[in-house]
Amino acid sequence: MVSRVIPVDPFDLVIFGGTGDLAHRKILPGLYLRYLSGQMPEGSRIIGAARTEQDSDAFRAFVKTGIDEFVAEDKQDSEAVERFLSHIEYVRVDAKGTDGWSDLKDLMRDGVIKAFYFSVAPSLFGDLAERLHLNGIADGESRIVVEKPFGRDLASAKALNSVLAEHFDETQIYRIDHYLGKETVQNLMAVRFGNILFEPLWNAQYIDHIQITVSETVGVGGRGGYYDKSGAMRDMVQNHLMQLLCLIAMEPPAQFDPDAVRDEKLKVIRALDPVPSKDIVRGQYRADGDEPAYREDAGDPNSHTESFIAMKVQVSNWRWSGTPIYLRTGKKLRARASEIAVVFKDPPHSIFGVQEGRRGNVLVIRLQPDEGMNLRVTIKEPGPGGMRLMEVPLDMSFADAVGGAGDDVPDAYERLIMDVIRGNQTLFMRGDEVEAAWAWTDPMINRWEDNGDIPEPYDAGSSGPDGSLALLVRDGRRWREVK
Ligand code: BG6
After folding, report:
1. Average confidence (pLDDT) over 168-193
2. Tally of CB atoms within 10 A around 460
3. The pLDDT of residue 402
4. Residue 10: how many CB atoms within 10 A of its CB?
5. Atom 5 of ligand 1 has which residue's CA nearest to it?
6. Which of the residues 87, 167, 209, 240 is marked catalytic?
7. Cys-Cys with 337: which of 156, 307, 361, 482 at CB 3.0–4.6 Å?
8. How many CB atoms lie within 10 A of CB 405?
9. Residues 6+ apart with CB under 8 A from 221
10. If you take atom 4 of ligand 1, which residue's CA is the nearest one?
11. 240 is catalytic
């Protein structure tokens, strides 16, 4: 693969919650990799900020353990790690008090980009934003980065948006959805809008339906406390699957520019029909041998939270009217695989007889693992015996075709953090998008909470509850088997 690393301008990046799990696993190892690739300039600094009492050396030792554990061995270059660590400082800061803020201010430099990563509970966003301003640390050029969950419903998302808006302009706020940083997710836009081939067919006239699947093999063990208050709808659909749906369904933006792209995504969310109960299937995984059931993982024997959800969604606009989009995601399923399958309609007339030759094409975009594209086409079965038809895949693995999404392709966090420094908001959610997504999910969640809806049990290692299969069978369709 041709590697084109363009260094960003020097920056001071403050990570609030610098001693937390996300910083340890993703943010700091990601920054090390960007440093290793030459993208993070020597004049940059990373400042960990948290409540823990420790000095910069202790924090550097903590960062090093994250690199040791979460960076591939062939990228562990001890000299580079030492040089990277020399760019790191630590300051003890009390998000809700006055301690440490003047130390942080003393550390910040003029003349470099200032970014503040809020890798903390959303309840602290307001305190941090306010103190950054009161103490004269942030200015009109500074950027803040916030993580999901961005609220747990429309009201809380609005409250978070308005608390941030008191101190920062929308152009300074970077709301991360790490799905948007995935290589193949961006490829969705390249495939759709960089080729003439697909766009003329990309509508209800030619597409029968679309399936978006994000299937995970892991359970929620270890994070049951958080998950049980969220469930698959809040944890995955409102954000990650919604973003995939937007990219697959949106109109072509006039430019590849942050607001042009986000305007088009917002229109899709606003065009989503409310989903009736009959079109939603919620599931919960059962115990599997020694492996605990969801309720045990969640620590609540009566939990009604869903670890799986499947739904039939309709985008009510000119392009998509009548073509449903089926979503499904869940934990403890058979495979770890995410894909989008665009199932085209059958040809209108078969010259080969009724049964033969009336098969639809299917375009599958594999997001992970083994990123790639696969187009199912009909050909003649080779050899004698008349005109017999068969289906074959035109299969392209991105790794084979262009050398990667391999090792040299930055992971979602690496890319998104560099976009923050570059000041490019295209792959970040705008406040109105997040609110529109909650406005769509809220009534469904309220309905099942009000009705005490009980999710359907499913076997660990299966493809979800039977109801999920029935959701498509009812429409004369079936889920693709993901592997
Ligand atoms: C997170 C969810 O946002 O995304 C997790 O909170 C989920 O529950 C994860 O496992 C999936 O991300 P990825 O990149 O592994 O597909």
Report:
1. 93
2. 20
3. 76
4. 16
5. 235
6. 240
7. 482
8. 23
9. 292, 297
10. 236
11. yes
